[in-house]
Amino acid sequence: MPPAKKRTRSYDPAKIRTAVLAQFGNVREAVGALEPGQLALPTRLGDWTVRELAAHLTMALGGATRFLAMPEPAAREVALLDWPSATASAARQVDEASRAFAAQEDLPGLYARTLAEFEEALPGLTQGRLMPTRFGAMTLDDFLVTRTVELIVHTDDLNDAVPGLDVPYDRQALAACTRLLADALAVKAPGGAVEVRVPPFAVVQCVEGPRHTRGTPPNVVETDPLTWIRLATGRTDWKTALDGAKVSASGERADLAGLLPVMS
Fold first, then answer.
1. Tell me: the pLDDT tens digits for 48-70?
2. Shortest CA distance to 225 belongs to which of 243, 206, 199?
3. Three-class SS of residue 206?
4. In the predicted structure, residue 234 carries a pLDDT above the cut 90
5. Following CA atoms 117, 153, 226, 198 in sequence, which dihedral angle do they give, to the nearest 10 degrees?
6. What b-and-e string marks burial along 129-163, b requiring 16 or more CB atoms within 10 Å of the CB?
7. Tell me, what DSSP letter sits at residue 191?
8. Residue 55, exposed/middle/buried by CB under 10 A (0-12, 13-18, 19+)?
């Protein structure tokens, strides 16, 4: 897989690690309080129940722990901006693993063990440390940025499935998730004709055409972080978001329907 051409945004590794742990903690607390009837509720993820979704959320950290236990690869094979488009290739493996965890494990125990193993694996690892993943070798720091996407996207799935649950979103994790998915759009549709704004976290230029250089851009799309994340991952579609006034779009090129989702 060739590396992405767009220059990768810089992320602070210490802040990302803190954000990942904070969001996992938010989810762990919420899942631990769920009743059996709530765990049996359906989700918007095919035939997964809340139980499968909750089990899957542990894989955000558990996968990192397992990969770090493997021999370190010789060279990086996957850049951070390659990751969103690569995830669909592992959908079947992820589904099978999630169902296995959900069927065999006590969820509070699974969360406690996953967190303990992750925290034990991290100390002493140096910046730039390589690790294998389902898609090829990545740096640990890049992979942890992808964990913010997994945790935030599926936290939103969990909140959608369980009325009144309202699991909070760690601000740093939400910011990193928003930015990575916005940058993925710019990789998918390179150019400077459209400015996509997701305040307060991200602004990207995308789509081929005349490049804006000064003043008000002629083609602008603006939305909030959670709506953007739902659009970018296929949880909602362009028309629904537009009709519901969740996104504004001005200019003849500001129609992103054909470019979404950027990750599935």
1. 999 999 999 999 999 999 999 99
2. 199
3. strand
4. yes
5. 80
6. ebbbbebbbbbbbbbbbbbbbbbbbbbbbbbebbe
7. S
8. buried
d(CA 150, CA 134): 14
Yes or no: say if 241 and 219 are a contact pair by the CB < 8 Å rule.
Answer: no
Report the C-alpha gap between 227 and 139 in whole angstroms.
Answer: 29
Distance, in Å, from the CA atom of 169 to the CA atom of 30, rounded to the nearest integer, reads 12
**Tokens describing residue 88:** 């669909």
Mean pLDDT of the chain: 92
Is-contact 141 16, C-beta < 8 A?
yes
Alpha-carbon distance of 218 to 67, in angstroms, equals 45
Total length of the chain? 264
